[in-house]
Design a protein that fits this description.
With about 270 residues, the protein is α/β, with parallel strands linked by helices. It folds into two domains: about 10-170, Rossmann fold (3-Layer(aba) Sandwich); about 175-265, Orthogonal Bundle (ProC C-terminal domain-like fold), CATH 1.10.3730.10. The chain contains ten helices and eight strands. The chain has helices at about 20-30, 75-85, 100-110, 140-150, 160-170, 175-190, 195-215, 220-230, 235-240, 250-270, and strands at about 10-15, 40, 55, 65-70, 90-95, 115-120, 130-135, 155. An eight-stranded mixed beta sheet has the order 3-2-1-4-5-6-7-8, with helices on both faces. The radius of gyration is 21 Å and the shape is elongated. The protein starts with 11 loop residues before the first strand and ends with a helix. The model has no long low-confidence stretch (mean pLDDT about 95).
Length: about 270
C-alpha cells in the first residue's frame, strides 16, 4: 500500500535551499509532494531534486501559495526587498531563519496575512524530524502549515518565542550534539582497541536502537537506564562518571544554554539592536 500523496497548497517557493531547507524538501518529496509545484531559488542555480525547478532569481510567472524562507539570517536584508513585493495577502510565509522574530518578519513582509516561524531539524529528510512552530495567521493557514510540517515528523506549537528558542536548542541544534556524542563514543571504543570502522558502526547502531526504544517506551529515560545498569556492574561504573557533578547533565545544560544565548543575540541583531 502506498502512502497518500502530500498535497501542496499551490506553488511553493524555497527561497534558499541549503542543508535545512534541502532536508525539508527531501521529506516533502518522500511524502509524495509534486516536485512540479516547487521552485527553489538559489543564486548558484544548482539542482536540488529531480523535477524541482531551480532559478537564480524569483519567478515572474506566478504568485506563491507558500514561501519557505531558508537563507542565512544575515542575508534577510538582501532578500526581503525583492521578495516582499512578490507576495500577496494570500501567500503564506514560513521562515526557518534562526533568531529572526515574527515582528521582524512582519515589518519586512507586510503583504502576507499569515507568517510563521518553523524550527526543524535535519531528520525531517527522513520524515522523522521535530518541527517547532509559532505563527501569526488565520486557522486555515495554520492548518496548512501544520499539515505540511506534520509530514516531516513531530510538530509542537509555541506561543512564546523565547521558549521556542530553548526548544530549538534541544531539537534543531540537538542532532549536532548527538552526532558529537556518537563520534566521541566511537573514539572511546577505538582508544581501547576496536577498529575505527567497527567502533563507528557499533556506536551508530546502538544510538539508533536506544533512541527508538526511548521513543516507543512508556518509561522515562531515567527508568530505562536503571533497567540496563545492574548494581555493581559495568554499566553502573560508567554511569557514575556521567552522573558526577560535572558530568553529562551539567555539560548539556551549558551546551543548550550557549545555543539559546546565541539565538537571543541573533534576534537582537535582526531587530537592529546588535
Amino acid at each position: 500500500m502506498t502512502n497518500p500523496r502530500l498535497q501542496l497548497p499551490g506553488p511553493v517557493w524555497l527561497v534558499g535551499c541549503g542543508n535545512m531547507a534541502g532536508a525539508m524538501l527531501q521529506g516533502w518529496l518522500a511524502a509524495g509532494a509534486d516536485p512540479r509545484q516547487i521552485t527553489a531559488i538559489r543564486p548558484s542555480g544548482a539542482p536540488v531534486a529531480e523535477g524541482v525547478r531551480v532559478l537564480a532569481a524569483l519567478p515572474e510567472d506566478e504568485v506563491p501559495a507558500l514561501v519557505l524562507l531558508g537563507v542565512k539570517p544575515q542575508k534577510l536584508g538582501e532578500v526581503a526587498p525583492a521578495l516582499a513585493p512578490a507576495l500577496d495577502p494570500q501567500s503564506i510565509l514560513v521562515s526557518i531563519l534562526a533568531g529572526v522574530e515574527i515582528a521582524v518578519l512582519r515589518a519586512r513582509f507586510p503583504a502576507p496575512r499569515a507568517i510563521f516561524k518553523a524550527m526543524p531539524n535535519t531528520p525531517v529528510a527522513l520524515n522523522r524530524g521535530v518541527v517547532e512552530l509559532l505563527g501569526d495567521g488565520d486557522p486555515a493557514a495554520r492548518d496548512t502549515v501544520e499539515r505540511l510540517m506534520s509530514a516531516l515528523g513531530r510538530v509542537e506549537w509555541f506561543e512564546d518565542e523565547a521558549l521556542m528558542n530553548v526548544a530549538s536548542a534541544v531539537t534543531a541544534a540537538g542532532p549536532a550534539f548527538l552526532f558529537r556524542f556518537i563520534d566521541s563514543l566511537a573514539a572511546a571504543g577505538e582508544s581501547l582497541g576496536l577498529s575505527p570502522d567497527l567502533s563507528a558502526r557499533l556506536a551508530a547502531a546502538m544510538v539508533e536502537g536506544a533512541g527508538a526504544l526511548a521513543a516507543a517506551s512508556g518509561e522515562t529515560p531515567q527508568m530505562l537506564a536503571r533497567r540496563v545498569a545492574s548494581p555493581g556492574g559495568t554499566t553502573e561504573a560508567g554511569l557514575k562518571v556521567l552522573d558526577a557533578e560535572d558530568g553529562m547533565r551539567a555539560l548539556l545544560q551549558r551546551t543548550i544554554d550557549a545555543s539559546r544565548r546565541r539565538g537571543a543575540e541573533m534576534a537582537a541583531a535582526a531587530r537592529g539592536e546588535g
